[in-house]
Amino acid sequence: MDWVRTVNNAIEFMENHLTENITLVDISKNVNISAYHFQQAFTLLAGITPSDYLRKRRLSQAGSEIAAGERVIDIALKYCYETPESFTKAFTRFHGFSPIQVRKGSAVKFMNRFSVQIKIDGGCIMEYKIEKWEAMELLVHTKEFHCETSDKEIPKFWDEYYANEELRKVPGYLGVCAQQKSDSDVFKYGIGCKASDVSGVPAGFEILHIPEYTWAVFKCVGPAGPAIQSTWDKIYREWLPVADYEQLHDYDIENYLPGDPAAADYVSEICIPVRKK
């Protein structure tokens, strides 16, 4: 998949529907990928979430129309706000002035339409390997997350896991994202290990059956959180646009190897299923 083209097509769709109450699922369906992977790719490539892009573009357009004398209630409804009050609050936060102040001559902010391109910065080395893995079973403690809030909620989920004495009995070195549907903005994320590491299925856990795939395994060096995030960014910005492989929208796995996760030389891995283009 050409991620740059996909994100630009999504931007085109959003621009054509600024005055309609479209959702993350509507946008991801239009570009034919799961809501989870679209949210992830768009945010990494554009530097802003899809919902923030829509909100800022709507408020940007609304600013010029309010300045031209349009009624607040009409513009609020046009750009999908339920009440003039909620629109006024959002408008004031974005522009720094209320609609009344703008109508009296205060300046408005403008955010232009985005266009995503590949930027070659040069010199970046990514260490990865391509491996064929047989089907496997993972033992994981899972929870469902919404795409738009998962970046804040999943770290809390990890904290809860290690704070729970019963859950901690299962080694939690794998983080597994399961997003196979394109008709939902909810996905399942699990923490655990290979099923063969533990006898039986403890309470609070389930077995995930991972099909046989070819995997791209990326080495991440540095404190776990920042290293993982930085590598995801490079995967979408630098590797996927030019690689001979495309990502399969199924399971993504983060593998946290033994060691101190806060150390500068700590090693973790991102594993994504791929196929030849």
Largest sheet: 9 strands, antiparallel
Q: Which term fits the overall shape? A: elongated
| Number of helices in the DSSP assignment | 9
Mean pLDDT level:
91
**Class derived from helix and strand content:** alpha+beta
Supply Rg: 22 Å
Order of helices and strands: HHHHHHHEEHEEEEHEEE
Percent range of helical residues: 25-40%
- What share of residues are in beta strands? 15-25%
What is the number of strand segments? Answer: 9
> Distance between the terminal alpha carbons, to the nearest Å?
8 Å
Pick out the low-confidence regions.
none
Write structural notes for this entry.
There is one protein chain. The protein has 277 residues and is of the alpha+beta class. The protein has helices at residues 3-16, 24-30, 35-46, 50-67, 72-78, 84-95, 99-103, 150-163, 224-239; strands at 128-133, 136-146, 174-178, 186-194, 206-210, 213-221, 245-247, 251-256, 267-276. Strands 1, 2, 3, 4, 5, 6, 7, 8 and 9 form a nine-stranded antiparallel β-sheet that branches. Strand 3 and strand 4 (186-194) form a beta hairpin. Helix 4 packs across helix 6 (84-95). The longest helix is centred in the first third of the chain and has 18 residues, at 50-67. The model has no long low-confidence stretch (mean pLDDT 91).
Q: Summed up, what is this model?
A:
The protein has 277 residues and is α+β, with helices and mostly antiparallel strands. It has helices spanning 3-16, 24-30, 35-46, 50-67, 72-78, 84-95, 99-103, 150-163, 224-239; strands at 128-133, 136-146, 174-178, 186-194, 206-210, 213-221, 245-247, 251-256, 267-276.
